[in-house]
Amino acid sequence: MEYKAITCFFCFEQFEVSLEVGSSFVGNISEIYDCEVCCNPNKIDYEVYDGEININNVGNGNE
């Protein structure tokens, strides 16, 4: 499990999300996380390669 800080798409406050990815997984994932400050849904698009998690985009989770 890895923790990453993201900035909320709605209120622009930062909060941490826990991302759990299998050790052999490689690819792209999209998940919805509710902001800890304003409770709005944030869609997080991230990629996993060689065990590294890189967040590509944080967007509107209502779409």
Automatic annotation (TrEMBL):
Matches recorded under Pfam families? Zn_ribbon_21
Name the source's superkingdom: Bacteria
**What protein am I looking at?**
CPXCG motif-containing cysteine-rich protein
Species lineage, top-down?
Bacteria, Pseudomonadati, Pseudomonadota, Gammaproteobacteria, Candidatus Pseudothioglobaceae
